[in-house]
Amino acid sequence: MGLTLPDGGAGTEVSTMSPNWVTTRLDFLSNWGRANSLWPMPFGTACCAIEFMASAASRFDLARFGMERMSFSPRQADVLICAGRLPFKLAPVIRKIWDQMPQPKWAISMGACASSGGIFDTYTMVQGIDTIIPVDVYVPGCPPRPEGLIYGIQLLQKKIKGESFLDRDLREEHLLRPDGLFLPAEKIDEVSEPFGNSVHQTRSA
Amino acid sequence: MTEASPSVAALRARFGGAVLRHLVSCGDTIVYVEAARLLEVMTWLRDDPGQRFDYLTDVTAVEYRDQERPLEVVWQLRSLGRKADLRVKVELDQRQPLVVASVFDLWKGADWLEREVFDMFGVSFTGHPDLRRILMWETYAEGFPLRKDFPLRGHFSRAEQTRQALSANAEAHYSLEELSIAAAYDELPADMQERLAHGERGGVK
Domain locations in chain B? Predict the structure, then answer.
């Protein structure tokens, strides 16, 4: 977190700074503002989007956490909420949306399908959106209840409040690698391995 | 209702040997016809005053687990005026190339239905004006997903599937041209032309 020099002076002047009273106060201020006015980019593809809409509506009221302003343009969004399964056909779309979002930005993977492919261990489905974009918070559930999503958002707020502008790696853009993938190929194969009940599917050859 | 539709007797009287056999299943009449004379039979079913099957409900295909059984292509016909249904089937030998005549010239609705059967089963419809994939993206290279020899998770590794998906053009599937509205503009009813001309995209013409 910027406390030590990585290789004896390759970093910029800011990264050589250690946290002091001024920087932590500045961090507190900016993180307080960011955490309490997240503008979500809803990427709703399935039933999780229904629960997401319920979270935003009056009974659960996402506005209590400063998230009432849904940003349907990625260029004005802070947090991408992938609510639902992601087929391979949509993989380049969510990647493009993620690349269009300016820093600082975070991602929430909502529900079992977005986080791991869920029950859709098939030829069409991305086995977890973390093989496409970096994810900050995973919300389990099928679909998660609005309380679950709100808890995930509170976890994200907690994470944001712990960030420091001295950590230069934090705001680094993670673009696709030269081989056209976000993660190394063997990593994708590893996290996409069948697990749980789907291991025993005879038709899955 | 266990009696066969009167269309069967009429078909046999008109086409004789081209009607291979028929059966009644759950009250629906199924007619197996010769692949070579399909177009002739379908034209007659649509145009004969006693038949008037003016609506093509669905085109699909069935492949059985028994590899010796032929693949069946299914046309579900409906006569809106007579309130009658008829299911027409053609059997295709799996050892031969899967080719059958397109009924696009009889029912315009066959366009996307035949594309879907081509996409999922690999059946080629001769005479179809625009036979390409419709559900999977056009560069999809793994084969035909609903065939029995297609593994549930696809042929390629997850990493390769992800790589190919991410290299796809995210804009390709959502253009106005894809929907062919602009191309069909002159054939549309006047009220629909009026609505499209003042659409939020500034109209198609």
Answer: 6-135
The third-level CATH classification (topology) of the domain covering B6-135 is: Beta Polymerase; domain 2 (3.30.460)
CA dihedral A77, A83, A85, A87 (to 10 degrees): -20
Close Cβ partners of B128 (under 8 Å, ≥ 6 residues apart) = B102, B104, B110, B111, B114, B115, B118
Inform me whether the C-beta atom of residue B139 falls under 8 Å from chain A C-beta atoms.
no
Structural domain includes residue A95:
yes
pLDDT digits (tens, 9 = 90+) for A155-184: 999 999 988 887 878 888 888 888 888 888
CA dist., res. A136 & res. A159, Å (int): 9
Check if B175 contacts A (Cβ < 8 Å). no
Find out whether A23 and A164 touch, Cβ atoms under 8 Å.
yes
Which of A127, A173, A178, A86 minimizes the C-alpha distance to B170? A86
Across the interface, whether the CB atoms of B170 and A95 are under 8 A apart is answered yes
CA distances from A90 to A101, B3, B48 (A): 17, 48, 46
Classify residue A14 as exposed, middle or buried by CB count within 10 Å of its CB (0-12, 13-18, 19+). Answer: exposed
Rg of chain A taking only CA atoms, in angstroms: 19
Q: What is the ipTM of this complex?
A: 0.78
B133 contacts in chain A (CB < 8 Å): none
Q: Using CB atoms and an 8 Å cut-off, which of residues 91-120 of chain B contact chain A?
A: none
Residue A17 lies in a domain: no
In terms of residue numbers, what domain contains A117? Answer: 32-196
Mean pLDDT, chain B, rounded, equals 84
Q: pLDDT digit string (tens) for A109-126?
A: 999 999 988 888 889 999
Q: Is residue A132 part of a domain?
A: yes
8 Å CB contact between B79 and B52: yes
Which of A3, A5, A182, A199 lies closest to A96, judged by CA?
A182
CA distance A182 to chain B (A): 9
> A127 to chain B, minimum CA–CA distance in Å?
8
For chain A, the domain total comes to 1
